[in-house]
Amino acid sequence: MSDHAHQLRIGNQNTRNTAFLAPMAGITDRPFRRIAARFGAGLVVSEMIASAALGTGHNEMVRKLGNAGALPHVVQLAGCEGRWMRLGAEIAHDAGADIIDINFGCPSKRVTNGYAGSALMRVPDQAMALVDAVVSATPLPVTVKMRLGWDDDSLNAAEMARRAVDAGAQMITVHGRTRKQFYKGTARWAPVRDVVDAVDVPVVVNGDITSVDSAREALSLSGAAAVMIGRGAQGQPWLVGQIGAQLAGYTAPARPQGADLVDLVREHYEEILVEYGTSIGLRAARKHLDWYLMASSMVLEKSDRSRLLNCDQPREVVAMIKQFYSGDWRAAA
User: What region holds the DUS-like FMN-binding domain (predicted)?
Assistant: First the structure.
């Protein structure tokens, strides 16, 4: 079987395989995406970028446009006004984006209170106006990420997807929860099949995919063409590539351990400091350092964990990374 059998084509772009890294605010920044791509992720997506803030030159939104390299550069935009989404798409295009993704899925109150993110599932006409605005602004492929609906009484993902594709969207991703669920309970993959049946573009299933077994089950129940991994990749950015390789029948990249894990965590930490600057980077890195510990089943004494996560001296943190992530601190599970 050729490599192409394990890829998706999105407009004029090919994915490496069928396991993608989900956009996660405050997590899938350029350093995280770069590492996931290096370990074989099929596609990686930027953090959600607020189109209005990007359009007015907000430095943080401009930073989020950074290209992780190696893979098609996917930029996710969020907003509720066509003029800002149009401008955001134009800016992303000029910054080197290869694909524009539109956020219909974020459940955050801060986002939905402004009728962006998953709140758009409640106002389909407004949502489609945003798709029209982005499609008309750029020749780049446009994709949409959504949820099953606002709540269980309005499971309208299939209809929203059909309309989005009619407006020009070339891929649909569906998180198998409603907005009312936030991240509670379990993702439902089977209802995503209604979306697959409604459109003639690739559909990606998302939510609670944490292993190749759960990926295969999600694909089987949904009929989707690919999976998207979000929270399961926290502390293990190599997971997306492992799942992609296994779905394709290839040997998965090895999970870093011992000295390899030390080198990876140190690299990630130092890249975060470069990305954000030392002051903000120290805070941004804490959650990743903690997730690496948890994903590797390492348990530190409370005082050691506090020193690692709260130290404001990069050299000392690097020394602790060499000490704590070496494997000697691994808890017997």
Answer: 21-295
